[in-house]
């Protein structure tokens, strides 16, 4: 016991630094304040496996009957003007003032008949960044994109991708026609039914068909809505290194330097927080150390007398 106490006294500073380092590594972690997206353009744009409804949400909950799977259309005989294509765009813009840019972009989208889907604004000590997602009618997309470029000090990245859902839309129409005709036939049969039992059986089948028709109508309406507008996600920041982008080179000293400086500042704050927490909890650990010291002194004196 005495050896342990002597060791702690002799190496107090070293042990304190070790505790601080362990706190940074495992308590809070060394944070990277600059989100650099090296795989910005590596996203799966084909969406052939699946297309979640929420990914193309209209700003609210998913519509009833919206399709949970939409395959990429392969039919090349359909004219381009008749195709249903779900399009998404993304911009990474360096701007002078993120908050003002968000307000201006949102107002512009509304003036063109669009609306906001999502908005986010963060204000770290070093720079301000934000994200804005809007939907704009397809026939106004060129006007809106030109406006975005005018608001930016620099367009860091721009991306466009989409999914052709023409085949899925056509299939829904065919299924609706079949189900509607079957419902009409069952209605005629029910009109000729002579017993209550027969009427109830046919009526149940009609209700089942109507449920399927309503579901398909919801899917059809959903595809019409999302294919008539473009979902645009705009990343905004006063520092371009805080934006999603593809680095020109794999190693950029200026980016590494900024990351190191900001990480150092954040870790210094963590150390200060650790010291403050230690001071607050001193009402617990200081009395504990005093009691430990008194007990140790008491036993030490007893051993000396013996």
TrEMBL record:
Source organism superkingdom: Bacteria
DUF4349 domain span: 83-294
Residue ranges of the TM segments: 274-295
Keyword Transmembrane among record annotations: yes
Pfam families: DUF4349 (PF14257)
InterPro entries with a match to the protein in the record: DUF4349
Keyword tags: Membrane, Transmembrane, Transmembrane helix
Name by which UniProt lists this protein: DUF4349 domain-containing protein
Native species: candidate division WWE3 bacterium CG10_big_fil_rev_8_21_14_0_10_32_10
